[in-house]
Amino acid sequence: MPWLSDQDLEALALTLRLAATVTLLLLALGLPLAWWLTHTRSRWRKPVAALVALPIVLPPTVLGFYLLLWLGPQGAVGRAMTALGLQTLPFTFAGLVVASMLYSLPFVVQPLHDAFGAIGRRPLEVAACLGAGPFDRFVSVALPLALPGVLTASALGFAHTVGEFGVVLMIGGNIPGQTRVASTQIYDYVQSGNYAHAHLLSLSLLLIAFLALLAISLLRTRRSAHD
Amino acid sequence: MPWLSDQDLEALALTLRLAATVTLLLLALGLPLAWWLTHTRSRWRKPVAALVALPIVLPPTVLGFYLLLWLGPQGAVGRAMTALGLQTLPFTFAGLVVASMLYSLPFVVQPLHDAFGAIGRRPLEVAACLGAGPFDRFVSVALPLALPGVLTASALGFAHTVGEFGVVLMIGGNIPGQTRVASTQIYDYVQSGNYAHAHLLSLSLLLIAFLALLAISLLRTRRSAHD
Amino acid sequence: MTDASGLDAQLRWSRDGFDLDVALQLPPRGVSVLFGASGSGKTSCLRALAGLEPACTGRVRFGDALWQDSALRVFVPPHKRRLGYVVQDAGLFAHRSVAGNLDYGFRRAGRPAHLDRDALIDAFGVRDLLPRRVHALSGGQRQRVAIVRALFADPALLLFDEPLSALDAGARDTLLGHLETLHATLATPMVYVTHAIDEVTRLADHLVLLDAGRAVAQGSLQATLARLDLPPSLVEAMGAVIEGEVVRHHADEHLAEVTFDGGTLLLPRRRAAVGQTVRCRIGARDVVLSLTPPSDSSALNHLRCRITAVGDADHPSQCLVQLRAGNQLLLARITRRSLHALALQPDREVWAQVKAVALGGQ
Amino acid sequence: MTDASGLDAQLRWSRDGFDLDVALQLPPRGVSVLFGASGSGKTSCLRALAGLEPACTGRVRFGDALWQDSALRVFVPPHKRRLGYVVQDAGLFAHRSVAGNLDYGFRRAGRPAHLDRDALIDAFGVRDLLPRRVHALSGGQRQRVAIVRALFADPALLLFDEPLSALDAGARDTLLGHLETLHATLATPMVYVTHAIDEVTRLADHLVLLDAGRAVAQGSLQATLARLDLPPSLVEAMGAVIEGEVVRHHADEHLAEVTFDGGTLLLPRRRAAVGQTVRCRIGARDVVLSLTPPSDSSALNHLRCRITAVGDADHPSQCLVQLRAGNQLLLARITRRSLHALALQPDREVWAQVKAVALGGQ
Amino acid sequence: APGRMVIAAAASLHDVMGRLVTSYRAAHPGARIDVVYGSSGILLTQIRQGAPFDLFFSADSGYPQQLADASGSDGPPAVYALGRLVLWSRDLDLAHVRLADLVQPRFGRIAIANPQHAPYGLRAEQALRAAGVWSALQPRLVQGENIAQAAQFARSGNARVGLLAASLTQSPAMRHGHVAAVPDAMYRPLRQSFVVTRHGADNALAHDFAHYARSAPARALFARYGFGLPAKAH
Ligand SMILES: Nc1ncnc2c1ncn2[C@@H]1O[C@H](COP(=O)(O)OP(=O)(O)OP(=O)(O)O)[C@@H](O)[C@H]1O
Ligand SMILES: Nc1ncnc2c1ncn2[C@@H]1O[C@H](COP(=O)(O)OP(=O)(O)OP(=O)(O)O)[C@@H](O)[C@H]1O
Ligand code: MOO
Ligand SMILES: [Mg+2]
Ligand SMILES: [Mg+2]
Predict the structure, then answer these.
(1) Within 13 A of C167's CA, how many CA atoms are on the CB side?
(2) Which other chains touch chain A, taking contact as 3+ CB pairs less than 8 Å apart?
(3) CB C141 less than 6 A from any atom of ligand 2
(4) pTM higher than the cut 0.90
(5) Nearest residue by C-alpha to atom 4 in ligand 1
(6) Cα separation of the two ends of chain E
C-alpha cells in the first residue's frame, strides 16, 4: 500500500485552499445577490436570476473552454488585462478561483435565495420597527434565520469546488502547487493506470469531505433543535 | 456559419432525455428521502445525510472511474448483474442514468431538505387533526408548501445533469446515439479544433437551458405572489 | 364523575421548567371549559389530548376508544382521532384559498352529507371570504375560517384554543350564539380553552380550572362558579347560573318571564319559546341587596333570599354573600361598609335586586 | 382638533376589495384607541402609520416630523420613526432567546440610560422567561415579551395591536395597570388597537371608531362614549367616564371618597392618594334609576340627576337614558317597562344608584 | 452487409481519423461507423471495463500491448503510423528555433501533453530533457490532459508555443501557425499501434477497417498529416 506522496499532499492542500477561497468569496458575493433577488422589485430581477443560474447548465469543460478563449491573450478580457499590465488568468490560481466561482455561483445563490424567501417579511418588519436599518436587519435577522440555507450554500459551494474537474482541466494547465488540484491528480493516476495511488487520494478526499459535511450537519442540527 | 448536424441534434435529444429521466427519478427518490431526513428521529439520520451529500465532493471523473470499476464486468455490481443475466451498466443509457443520479442526488435532496424544514410542524399538525394521514399530509400540505424548494431541486438536478461531463465521459464512453450527450459532443468539437460547431452547440444548450430556467422562475414568481 | 362515555384523561408531561400533571374527566356532551392563567398549561392539555405530543405520557380514553395508554403502549395518531382542533393562531394553510382550507377536512371526513355547509358558512360569515387567499385575511377573519374548517371535518370531539380572542365584541357575540346553537344541535363534545369570563359563563357546562399545570378544581359550571373559594382570577366570573322555564312573553315590552325554583325573573326576550328551558347568569357584581322590597326603582327583578354564607372577595373593601332562593344559590358582591350598615349575616332574609338589562347579554 | 404636535395622518389605500380611507388627528399625549370590528382596518392603519405599507398613500405627520407625504414624495422608513410596534401575533425573533429579543431594540436605541429595564421586566413578569427560547413560550408569555421589547426600544410612538388579547383576565388586569402607569410616566403617545371594551374604557384618552376602512367617529373618550348614536358594537362600552378628586380615604373599609362636579362617589380604594385625580367609569348597565333616594340597600352611591335625553338601546326591550349630574353626563340602560312604570322623560329628576363594586375593577 | 462499428482513437488522431473513416465509408455505404476520441490511457481503461469499442487506435504501442497481454484483443498490436513531435506557435516565427532556445523568456508558457499518461507528453519530456532544458522550463510548462488539449492551449495563445503532434498542426484550424520540427533523435519513436478488440473480434467490418488502415490510401493520408510510415507489413 503506497502512502500519500508529497505531490498528493500538495494537491490536497491546494484543493482545500481553492475551495475555501471560492466558498468565502461566493458567500460574500452570493449573500447580497440572493438578498437583492429576494427583495428587489426591479425589472432586472428575473434576467439577473436567470443569468446567475446559467452556469449550471454549461458543462464545466465548455465553460472552461470559453473562459480559456475570453481570458486568454486573444480574448476580450485577456487583452484588457494585458493592456493594464496584468497577468492573464489561465494557468494561475487566481484564474481557477474566478472560474470556479462562476461555475459554483448558482449552487450558492439558489439555496440562499430560498432561505431568504422562507423567512418571510414579518421578522424584518419587526426589526425595522425596532430601529434596525436595512443592513442591520440583514445581519441581525435575515442571516441568523437563514442559517440552514447559508450552511447548505456553503456546503454545496465548497463541495462543488472540491469536486471541480472540467473547468480546472481546461484552464488550469496542471501546474504542481498552482493549479494541480486533487481531482486532476486523481485523474492523472487513473489515466496512467496507477490505481493504488488513485484509490488512496480519492479516499483522503472523501474523508476530508465527509468530516467537513459532518461538521456542517452538526451545526445544522444544533440550530434546528431550536424549532 | 454551420448548422446543427444530425449528430448534434441526436446529442441534444439524448441530453434532454437523460436530464428529464434523471430529474424525475431523483425527485421520486429525493422527496421521500428528504422527508425522512427532515422528520425521522432515527440515529441513522446523520450518517445517511452525510452519505447523500458525499457525491458532491467527488470529482465527477473520479466518481465515474469508480462506477466504471464497480459496475463493469469485473466489479462487484457488474458481476452480480451478469450472474442475473443482465447487461452491465457502463456504456449504456441506463448506466448514464444511474451515474448521473448518484452524482446529482445531493443537489436535489439538499434544497428539498431545507424546504421541508422551513415548513415547520404547525401545518402538518393541523392537517393531522383534520384527518390527514402521513402520506396524505406529505402530498396535500408538505409538497405544495415546499413548492419553491421542489422547483429549485428540479432546476438544479436538471441543469446539473445537462452540464454533466466527467461521469458521462468515463462510464458512457461517448458513443454516438447512446451515450454521447451534448456536453461530450461539444468537448469533441473543441478538441478537434472545430470551434464553430462547438459555439453553435453550446449556444443551443444555453438557449434550451435558459428557457427551462425562465419557465421555472416564472413558476416560482407565480407562487411567491402568494406571500 | 366516572362517566365511561366521556373523555377521561390522565396526562403527565415534564419539559424544561414546566410540569403538567392533570386528570380530566369530561362529560360526553356539552362544553368543557379549560380556564387558567397564561402559561398554566391549557394549550399543552389540548395538544396532548389531540395526540400531538407523543412525549406526554398517561392515558386518554374518549368514549369507547382508548387513544393513549403509555403503560400498554397504545397511541392512536391524531388523524385517527376525528378531531376538530382550532389552534390558537388559526393555522390556516397558506397554499390554499379559504374555500380550499374549508374543503380540506371535509373531504377527508368523507364529505359527510349531514353537514349543512351553507348554514355554517353563513353563520360564521365567511361566504365573502371563500375565494380569498388566507394571507389577505384579518386576524378575526382567519379565526372564523379556522372554526368553520374544524366543523367541516365532522369531528367527534372539538378542541378550541381561545378561538374568539381575536374577534371584536360584536362578532364574538354572534359567534358565541352560534357556538351555543351548535353544541345544542351537534351533540359533539367540546373542550374549550379561554380566559374570557363571558365565554365561560355562556358556553361552559363543565369547568376545569388549571393552575401551573394542575387541575385545581373541576365540576359542573353551576357548582363551580357559586363556590366561595375560587382563585382571584375567577372573581369577575362568579355568580349564579340559573336554569328556568319561559312561562310567558311580554310581547310589547320584549321581555320574557322565566320561573325557577326560587322565584320569577324578567329578562330581555330571546329566541326561546314558551315552555323552553333557558340559562341565565346573575353576576355577583350585578346583585344589590336590600332589607325591604324596593319600590319605584328601574330594577325589575327582586328575589327573596336567605343568606347562607359570607366570604372574602378579591378587594378588601368587599365581600361575597352567598344567598339561597329556593334551591338555587346566588352570589352578591357588596362592600363591607354595606354589610355592616345593613347588619347582614347568615340566615338573615334579604331582597336581591337584579336589573333585567344585566341578564340580557348572555 | 388640529394639534400640530400630535399625530396627523391621512391614509388612503386600496387593495383587493378593501379600501382604507382614514383621517386621524391624535393628541400628542395619552392613549388613542382604534376600535372596530374584525376586518375594519385597524391593523392596516397601524401598519401604514409604521411605514410598513409603502403602497399606502397620503400624509403622516408626527409632531414636527413629516413621515410621509405622497404628494411631496416624502417617505421616512420604519427604522427611522422610533416606533414601538407590538404586532398582533407577537412577532418574536425565533433565533434569539427572550433576553436577546428584549435586547434587540434596546441596543439600537443606543442603550438609553433612563429606561428602568428591571422594573419593566418585573412589571410584565418576564424575568423567569429571560433565558428561554421563544418557541417554548405560551401565547400570553410571548405577548408580554413583545410588549417589553417594544418598550425597551425607547420609542417616541407606541403602536399596540391587540397586545392583551392572548392574556388571561388576571394577567390582563395587571398589565393594564402597568400600561396605565406607563402612559402616565412615559409621556409616550400610544395608538392602541383593541376590541375589548374594558381596555377602551381603562386606557383610552382618545377614541377612534373604525368601520369598513373609515373612521366613523373620533374624539375624547368622555365625549365619544356618552353619545347615544354609537354603533351597536359599542353598546356594552357605553357609559360615563368621570374624573374626580380623591377627598378622603375610609381606611378601615378600604374605600375612597371621590368628589366631582355632580356629587360624591365611594369606590374601592386604589393607589391614588388624597388630592389626586382619578378616573372611573360608570357603565350604563350598572346604573339603576329610582324616583326616591333608596334606603337600606347595599348600593352605596346615589347621585341626583336630571334626565336630558332618551334613546334606543341594542335590544328592543331596553332604552338608554342620558342624565346630567352637575356638568357630568351619565348613561343608564333600563327596560322600557321601567321607563313607562316610572314615567321617566327628559327634564325629570331621578336618583341614579351605582354599586361601589361596579366601580372597582377599573 | 452494412454493419456497425465503433472506433476508439487517441486524441492525436483528431481530424485524420475522421478523414480516414470518410474515405472508407465511400466504399461501404450504409455502414455506421462512429469514432470516439480520448486519451489513450482512458480508452484502454474503458475497453477493459467492457466498452463496446471494436478497434483501438492508440498513440503508442504500449497501451495496445497491455490489452493484448490481457487477452483483450484479437491478435497482436499493429503499427499504423509513426508519430512526430513538432514545435508550434500561433504568432512566433519559429524559423531556426531549437528546443534549447525555449529557455528564452520570450517563448512564455509552453504547452505539452501530460507526460504521465499521454504518449506525446512523454515524448515531449524526452525531447526537452535531451535539449537539456527540462528542469529550467518547469515553471513555464502547462500540461494538457491529452495532446489535443495541449494544442488548444497553444492555439488560443494562452501558451506561446506547444510541443504537439505533427498531425494536429495539419488540421485546417492550425495550419496557419508556425511550425518547427523536432529532430527524431531527441525522443523515442512513437510507434502508433492499433488492435481489434475482443468486442470487435467477430465484427467483419472491424477487421476490414483494420486492413484498410494499413492500405496504401490510408498510408497516404497518414503521411499527408505528418506521420511517418512504418515498414509495409505482410
Ligand atoms: N415547546 C415548549 N417547550 C418547553 N416549554 C414550553 C413549550 N411550549 C410551552 N411551554 C411552557 O409550558 C407552559 C404551558 O404552556 P401552554 O402553552 O400550555 O400555556 P397556556 O395555558 O396555553 O397559556 P396561554 O393562555 O398564554 O396560551 C408554559 O410555562 C410555557 O412556557
Ligand atoms: N395582505 C392583504 N391583501 C389584501 N387584503 C387584505 C390583506 N390583509 C388584510 N386584508 C383585508 O383588509 C381588511 C382590513 O384588515 P385588517 O387586518 O386591517 O383588519 P383588522 O381591523 O385589524 O381586523 P382584526 O380585528 O380581525 O385583526 C380586511 O378586510 C382584510 O380582509
Ligand atoms: O493522443 Mo494522446 O493519447 O493524448 O498522446
Ligand atoms: Mg395557550
Ligand atoms: Mg388586526
Answers:
(1) 26
(2) B, D, E
(3) yes
(4) no
(5) D136
(6) 27
